[in-house]
Amino acid sequence: MAMQNYISFLLLVCAFGVLANSEFGTGSVAGGNLPRSCVESEKQALLLFKNSLVDDSSSLSSWVGDDCCAWEGIGCDNITNQVTQLEVRNVFLTSKKIHPSLLDLKYLTHLELSISSSQGIQIPEFFGSFKDLIYLNLSNSNFEGWVPQHLGNLSKLQYLDLQTNEDSYQELRMDSIQWLSKLSLLHHLDLSGVNLSSAIDWFSSINMLSKSISVLHLSGCALPSNIPRHLSFINLTSLVSLDLSANRFHASFPSWVLNNTNLEHLFLGSNYFHGLLPESIGSLSALSVLDLADNKFQGTIPLSIANLTSLSQLDLSVTRLSNPFPPNMGNLTELRYLGIAMMGLRGSLPETFCQLKKLEHLDAGGNRLTGQIPECIGNLSNLNDLSLTENSWEGFVSEYHLINLSRLLSFTISSDSNLISNISSEWVPPFQLQVVDMHSLKMGPKFPQWLLTQRNIQYLLLANASISDTIPVSWFSSLFSSLEYVDLGDNDIHGDQLSLISGASNVLTSVDLSNNRLSGKFPAFLCNLTALAYLELSNNNFTGELPRCLGNLTQLNYLVLMNNSLSGNIHFLGSLGSLTYLNLYNNKFSGKLPRTFQNFSQLIAIDLGKNNLSDVLPTWTAEQSQIKYLILRSNNFYGEIPTQLCQHKSLEVLNLADNQITGNIPSCFGNFSAMVRGLITYNFLNYSTRGAKEFEIVDETKGYEQDYTSTLKYLVSIDLSMNNISGEIPKELMDLHGLLNLNLAGNHLSGKIPNEIGKMENLIFLDLSRNELHGPIPHSLSYLNFLSQMNLSFNDLSGRIPSGYQLQTLDDPSIYAGNKQLCGPPILKPCAADTASHSVNDHNEADSDLDSDDEHMWIFAGLGPGFAVGFLGFCFTLHFSNISIHVSILANRILRRYR
Ligand SMILES: *[C@@H]1O[C@H](CO)[C@@H](O)[C@H](O)[C@H]1NC(C)=O
Ligand SMILES: *[C@@H]1O[C@H](CO)[C@@H](O)[C@H](O)[C@H]1NC(C)=O
Ligand SMILES: *[C@@H]1O[C@H](CO)[C@@H](O)[C@H](O)[C@H]1NC(C)=O
Ligand SMILES: *[C@@H]1O[C@H](CO)[C@@H](O)[C@H](O)[C@H]1NC(C)=O
Ligand SMILES: *[C@@H]1O[C@H](CO)[C@@H](O)[C@H](O)[C@H]1NC(C)=O
Ligand SMILES: *[C@@H]1O[C@H](CO)[C@@H](O)[C@H](O)[C@H]1NC(C)=O
Ligand SMILES: *[C@@H]1O[C@H](CO)[C@@H](O)[C@H](O)[C@H]1NC(C)=O
Ligand SMILES: *[C@@H]1O[C@H](CO)[C@@H](O)[C@H](O)[C@H]1NC(C)=O
């Protein structure tokens, strides 16, 4: 974010400089000394144009009176009084068309429109008839459709800016840019965001542009993947600023760029550039911005980079370039921004960095840097953003690392090794931080004293920091006016002092105090945090009832109170209509569910398992239901499974186990299309605030660890075990090809196992034990290639146990125990005619109850739809049967410019 601002800042300065030096300023905007009156026909044209606009921001309020040359945004020739300049910003167009009255402004040299409409506007062809136009700027408008080639008639044009608004849904397109070569005086061309994917001739056309082209910005143009490396002849030699970022180039470094010895800004970020960086990059001695981030460049960092002594901004983040750094890096004395994050850097951070005295931003996060952090960093007194996070540092972080950083606003550091913070408790820092991320650092056992001097913290991440202390109540209360995000999870913070905290806040959006030893009543101050969207207090010792005022937090998206001893009613949660995720697993809540839950249209996951809730099963009729995880296991839900449940096409995990459910399994279960398709969209973020979380599923009890990453898209599970469900297993259930887990154990199901069971080709776990199923075991069961746990014990199944394929590996006889009429391997009883003896081998009947709580299957995954409360990190756990899913969504860090 910071960098983007900085880039925009630089560009602004650059554009401003260029404008100031250019010759089009014939008419001074509303600036003449002599009384003038503008040309009547031009005034009428402007008024017609004005009438076609909605001017909510009153930017055209000065467009009254006779002298249109005096109107804001209008400039006139100082001799003829003809309108030469038109600048209109922030207006809204009611139709798709720009009013053609503008055609009457025949002498325009300068035209800038920042205009929007609900539909998207065409660039009018008649713009091509402003024959004197020098400057055309249509950026930050929502123009759409094809850029008319008529603009190629603007033979005097020097500036063409069609940069599209990033948030615009509309898209401008060009299928060829050849006609741009007709603009022989062009020296500033910005087509950023214009879709050029069908302009296959783009590069040869660019090479034919005016030789004087100095600014060429083609960022995010969906340019085709190839770009020539070497050219026999290159026309582009006057470039001062080149931006090819955010395209799809799969190519090596375009070395023709190096012929532009005046180049000041080079942006190649966010492409697939690969290969080595040429050593000759050091000859671009005018370079002040070099952004190569988010590419696949490899090899070592060219030593010649240290020759680029004008550099103020260098970004090599998210590349595969490796250290060592050039020994004379310290020559880059103008450097203000240095991005070396996520490059896989190893070894130590050299002290030459400490010579970069002007450095304001240093991001070295997400590498494998080891050794001690050089103390001299504490003398980079211009730093306002220092990120050393997610490395393997050793030794200590002491006050010397921060000693003179009086401008520091953001400090992020963490380490997967044994980095210890031994900042002296007497030290008073010279800064007031806004962002503190020191997670996974050993900074306890006490809350560090120096931190308590910080009064402006917005983002506080001290998770897993070996803190064993009570909450510093007054400090915490005083932070309420600034704090937006706090994560103190995974420590040993204890006591019931939270109940002493008072104060209110309308900025705090996220609180995570999970995995501590906090006790006492649910902290009532939380009710005063009116903007709270994320609250996680899981794995603490909170007791008693929830305060009713919790129902006031209507912004809450995530409420996770799992694994406490909270009790009482939850009906007042019925007002939390923004909930996406609710987890009350393993508490003592009782009573009924709020009726409104089923209308919560944002709800994606709900886990109320292991409580004493007693109610009929909700029908969940929400029309736009997105619910994916519905987990009600181990409560006292009763009655039949409502068929309305089948309308929830998005359901992926349904766990109603261990309740008192009666009736049949509805045959409409075959309608759970997400399970049929096996199409579940997860976004995986493996770089996160709390460390790179690998995404894994581990079945702990069975003693094996298996990585199901590639099949997770099929993750779906139905667990109806331990109820009083009767009737047959509906055939339709077998249509759920995406199902991984089917657990119907411990019911009164009768009839046969459907022959179609072989269709559930992704099934890994199947438990039909302890029912009243009879008949043969379908042979098609042996087609289930992934089946790794099965239990059919204690039914009335009969006949020969099918063999072959995957069933060969399931050779534990206990999974067939208690079916007196089964025969053949793996059980010892031989089949049919061979013997008459009924030697039942019951000695193998181990209790294969798979419902033990210790059996966990962990899945670290992100949940699809973005949870857009800024830079949040969170994780949650869902439980179902012998599987519990730990879903972790950890959004990107603040101050990281990568999405
Ligand atoms: C009129 O414009 C010309 C050219 O831009 C400029 O040189 C001249 O000083 C201006 N005259 C007045 C009176 O502003
Ligand atoms: C075009 O206008 C926008 C918005 O006013 C401005 O940021 C940009 O620098 C202008 N482009 C040029 C080439 O001057
Ligand atoms: C302007 O360009 C268009 C398309 O390139 C062309 O058809 C038209 O004749 C040109 N108009 C003038 C006045 O040159
Ligand atoms: C260079 O530009 C000129 C005119 O601007 C053009 O005629 C020539 O073909 C261009 N060269 C190449 C290699 O594209
Ligand atoms: C680039 O510059 C070098 C050295 O000045 C020159 O030999 C080469 O021909 C130039 N390349 C192109 C493509 O113009
Ligand atoms: C922290 O540890 C470093 C390295 O051992 C030591 O030089 C420094 O004095 C320690 N600071 C404090 C406050 O203990
Ligand atoms: C906690 O920090 C240690 C290093 O101090 C690290 O090894 C561990 O993975 C961290 N745990 C979590 C849950 O982040
Ligand atoms: C819930 O608490 C129990 C007992 O403290 C613990 O063993 C278990 O790991 C916790 N579950 C989760 C998912 O954290």
TrEMBL record:
What is the topology of this protein in the membrane according to its UniProt annotation? Single-pass type I membrane protein
Q: Where in the cell is it found?
A: Cell membrane
GO BP: defense response; response to other organism
Q: Carries keyword Repeat?
A: yes
Q: Which Gene3D superfamilies match?
A: Ribonuclease Inhibitor (3.80.10.10)
A Pfam family cross-referenced in the UniProt record is: LRR_1
List each coiled-coil range: none
The portions of this protein that span the membrane are none
Q: Any idea which UniProt keywords this protein has?
A: Cell membrane, Glycoprotein, Leucine-rich repeat, Membrane, Repeat, Signal, Transmembrane, Transmembrane helix
Record's superkingdom?
A: Eukaryota
Q: What InterPro entries does its record include? A: Leu-rich_rpt, Leu-rich_rpt_typical-subtyp, LRR_dom_sf, LRR_N_plant-typ, RLP23-like
Q: Does the keyword Magnesium apply?
A: no
Query: Cellular component GO terms, alphabetically?
Result: plasma membrane
- Family listed: Belongs to the RLP family.
What PANTHER family does the entry give?
LRR RECEPTOR-LIKE KINASE, RECEPTOR LIKE PROTEIN 30-LIKE
Q: What is this protein called?
A: Uncharacterized protein
